[in-house]
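In response to a reviewer's request, we include the raw inputs and outputs for one of the modeled complexes. The two entities were modeled together in a single run.
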Amino acid sequence: MNISVEQLRVGFGTVQALDGVSLPFAPGEVAVLAGPNGAGKSTLFSVLLGLVRPDSGAVRVDGRDVLMGSRKDRVAFRARLGYLPEAVAFSENLTGRQVMKFFARARGIAADRREEVLSLVGLAGPAGRAVRGYSRGMRQRLGLGIAILSEPELLVLDEPTGGLDQEGLTVLWDVLAQWKQAGRTVLVSTHDLALVERRADAVHVMSRGKLVASGSPDELRRRTQLPVVVKVEVGDPVRAEELAGGLSARLGVPVDLGVGSLSLQVAPAELLGVMRAIEQSSEGIGGLRVEEPGLDEVYQRLLEV
Amino acid sequence: MFAVGRALVVHELAERLRDRWVLVITMLFALLASGVALYGRTAEESAASVTAPSIVTLATLLVPLVALVLGHDAIVGERERHTLGLLLSLPGGRTEVLVGKYVGRALALGLSIGLGLGAAMLLLGPGQRIVVASLLPHTLLLGAAFLSVGMLVSTVTRRHATAASLAVVLWFLLVFFYDLGILAVLVATDGAFEGARVGALIAANPAGLYRSAMLTQLGLGGGLDGIQVSAMLPGAMAQAALWGGWIVGPLVLGAVRMNRSKVAQV
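The model returned the following structure tokens for the whole complex.
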């Protein structure tokens, strides 16, 4: 399923929640929407889900505008997506299984799939207990189960990591991997980019209703030109000090001397020259590691720009 | 087709059964209607003259209140619990969600009314049972109409507390003050207000239509504090149209409100 949003505008009074946002989402892609509170991530999701009507713009699915299409088109689109809201909530009196049963019935899903999903999200045991006794992580897992129940082609996860314990995170990563492998699209909004960094194919940074930057994590790193850290392991402290002085003089950058190692912060464009310089003074070097900036640092820089 | 609506019907009914709402309301109806039935039996008067009219008066007060209470939180309650977004993201329209919830709750209400009246009928003789049973269809219509009004309240309010207050105000207005208003008009106009117009005013309110139609059916003239209104009420077709309007109208308005709303879940 090819989905794109085009020039979406949503205003609430004087606040422009979405201000001309256009984005493509490719099949098999894990796309992350990042941005501070009020950036417009949840509003964008709400438009996709038909919960908020935009003032203008289009949501195209395989080339067809589902917002302007017939009711049948909109319903058919919703049948192809699964949704995990940020503040997921259920009727407190119902058991996990009863909640799942309702959503399965509403989507025409068979009972065996329902039980399979309960097992998948690790709730087969507590499924008979009332939701009121569930922890936040368990509710989040139940919500994730509901979202994946119909094996939707588009999975929309609004802040899915909030409240998830390690078991829940493992389930979430498994789901992301499965969806990606099956060529389905996943949209994730999050504040915690470090957590989803390794799973993201595309990151879209939003601020005040506008798209600030888009690209793969590597593309965004290149764009920000944040320095990389080169860590050199040197066993002999005397040699480490000698090497630090030499590299600092030669490259004109400060070198931090640690216990058994030294590190340099260099601009990505200068990395090759630094590596050559280290290679030329390789005596006594036990190992070398290049650390790229984290996606959360990249995100902060993009927001500052 | 309409899987979301059908799932909601089952879910709403099951939830009312599960949380004992149906049981409590059934017991309430049964207790009060049985009390009336017992009184009617000891009074040794016919069901048509004592028991059934008393049940009509009881239902005119109780059924609208229960129906409004049942309907008022259908949508606003989901909104406040943050469950509406997930519900509306299902592959069904907003109208389907509203109608599914309405039908499920209407079934629960109908079940309570039916069982409550049924319990009272057990205390009566066979002849009296038939008279009381004849009240059931209109009592169900009364419940359906006020449930629909409750659902409308639920779609136009943003807070549960506001919806609850509005439901109580509507109950007072339609069940108590409406008749007082008509009486005030009659007094103020010194009888110049003619019968057909009085009948139309009474029939315009589902509580008045129910009470007058039922008392007329029981051969008691359909009273408004002593005023005989049986001849003033509109014909059967017009009454059917009024019932249809009160059941469908608020639901349609609620659906329009939900569909026109820019934001569905907050």
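As requested, we also summarize the result in words. Chain A touches chain B at residues 12, 46, 49-53, 71, 74-76, 78-79, 81, 83, 85, 87-91, 93-94, 102-103, 105-108, 143, 146 (CB under 8 Å). Chain A is about 40% helix and 30% strand.
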